[in-house]
Amino acid sequence: MSLHPFVDAAPMAADPTIPTLTGLLAQRAADSGEREFLRFGDWSWTFAEIDAWTSRLAHRLIEVDGVRPGDRVAIMLPNVVHWPVGWLAALKAGAVVVPVNCSYQRADLAFVLRDSGARVVLTDAERVGLVAEVARAEGLEVDVLDVAEDGSEPFPATAPDRVVDADTLANLQYTSGTTGFPKACMLTHDYWVRLGWLCSGTAGLGRDDVLLTAQPFSYMDPQWNTAVALTVAAPLVVLPRFSASTFMADVRRHRATFVYVLGSMPTLLFKQPPADEDRDNALRAVFCSAIPVALHAQLEERWGAPWREVYGMTESGIDLYSAFEDTASVGSGSLGRPVPTKQVRVVDPADPAAGEVPAGEPGELVISGRPMMSGYWHRPDATASTLRDGWLHTGDLVVRRPDGGIQIVGRIKDMVRRGGENVACAEVEAVLERDDRVVSAAVVAEPDEVLGEEVKAFLQLREGVRADRATAQDIVTRAGAELARFKVPRYVEFVADFPRTPSERVSKPALKARAAEQPGTTHDFSPRRS
Asked: Helix (H, G, I), strand (E, B), or coil: what is residue 462?
């Protein structure tokens, strides 16, 4: 089986032939009905079975719950088949789906239900009491449906007569939120169909592939994997959760050919003990966001498959990728080039209208094209700040490489301002994580009365490594051989784990809050007042 990704930045003449997710499901039920669509553990369902189930549930939502076009239906479930079934059923009913992190407690859940105006919540027995309690406390009129008994059986297995087109709103997708409560990206059917179409094309996927995902379904990744499966009529395997110790065993067991990982996942996978069966798998393509540069070649060698960088956001789907033929990108740190339907610029954040900054100089990455969110739900000011004159301002600092690719250097807001120097946290974290003793690193700003801010590193160590001052000193000294002196962490604190967002990124606000409430031992390595 060969890979046939799109040519970098080539113009795309045609749009996806089917403009909606519901239309894609109907087409797959018609032309590939008996093919496997979804696999959860030892259970699987065909395209025809899911099409019939979602139609029955859509009728139930309309006739019993009174769901009208545009109503919001929240889904608060772990990774079970009822999640994609509920999603597709609500879309058939003309509703807008609100994915809710199933680990949310009262405050977060109350915010999402209030902000979205959800009328129905699909959940399970473990959470039905919490949802009902929050709805009562907030005075919300919400129907709570336990999916174990969804009541859909008596209803027709044909889709209800609801008009859905490319511009119909499909999701209110709440971002993880770095400060305060999250914002909801308004995502249309066109967004999801185009995202599945682009991802399948860039990865060269077809009906003989087996996709596998382990992230929470409330997050983007299993949803766009579902769109890919619908696009190419391939099965999607959904794991209950990500576990570094069992992930590759599941890849082997299910004969997965394509996976997407991100955040800390590649580092955690690589730091598992090597096994004789590592290369005994069917993988032929791995997409990853933020591949550790120093590990890139070793990741490919260990599991015998090409790993390529892909960049995107909830707001914009997929934006940049490295082609699988581009072996020169391995270990380069390049994010690649734009997908065929996107354009990118690198601009001065302080004066984006002045045009692009010179190649090699850092600037903010801004993006235009499709897919793209319609804006933030009930947040006109935030929408106007992020979407300006058709360009999405990502907040990511990047440089254009000599080969034309884009390389990330940090976040505009994820910086330490040490005296007169700006320190990109991502750069320091990458250097720290090259140390074999470090599983994961998070760098934050620590207030300093002289310099304004100092560099502090939180480090999670590999099992068996002593979390003492000598280890901290040695790690910092090694980092100093690669970093400018002003970038080397002054403070080091060891942690057993990191609080993470659903996208497996470290939640730095939660980390700093935890450190303030439960302070650990902080090692201070001599004030540097230069």
From this structure: coil
Q: Three-class SS of residue 176?
A: coil
Return the structure tokens found at 464: 């068996």
Whether residue 115 has pLDDT greater than 60: yes
Residue-wise pLDDT for 331-387, tens only, equals 999 999 999 999 999 999 888 888 899 988 889 999 999 999 999 999 999 999 999
Instruction: Check residue 502 and give its pLDDT.
Output: 65
pLDDT at 13 over 90: no
Q: 37: part of which helix (H) or strand (E)? A: strand 36-40
Long-range pairs of 38-47 with CB within 8 A, sequence gap ≥ 24: 38/81, 38/84, 38/226, 38/229, 38/235, 38/236, 38/238, 39/235, 39/236, 39/237, 39/238, 39/254, 40/79, 40/80, 40/81, 40/238, 41/240, 43/81, 44/235, 45/81, 47/233
Interval 68-77 mean pLDDT: 98
Q: Where in the chain are all domains bearing CATH 3.30.300.30?
A: 414-524
- 505, amino acid identity: R
Residue 123 amino acid letter: T
Average pLDDT taken over every residue of the chain: 92
The architecture in CATH of the region 13-214+223-235 reads: 3-Layer(aba) Sandwich (3.40)
Report how far residue 458's alpha carbon sits from residue 446's, in angstroms, rounded to the nearest whole number.
11
Architecture of domain 414-524: 2-Layer Sandwich (3.30)
Q: Does the pLDDT value for residue 229 go beyond 60?
A: yes
Burial of 7-26, coded b for 16+ CB within 10 Å and e otherwise, reads: ebeeeeeeebebbbbbbbbb
State how far the Cα of 238 lies from the Cα of 463, in Å rounded to an integer: 29
Closest CA relative to residue 487, chosen from 496, 479, 495, 475? 479
Q: Which of 157, 144, 141, 130 is nearest to 50 (CA)?
A: 157
What pTM does this model have? Answer: 0.85
Helix axes of 425-432 and 469-480: crossing angle, nearest 10 degrees: 110
The pLDDT of residue 527: 58
Alpha carbon of 236 to those of 219, 233, 258, 287, 516: distances in Å? 16, 10, 10, 15, 42
Domain with CATH 3.40.50.12780 in the chain: 13-214+223-235
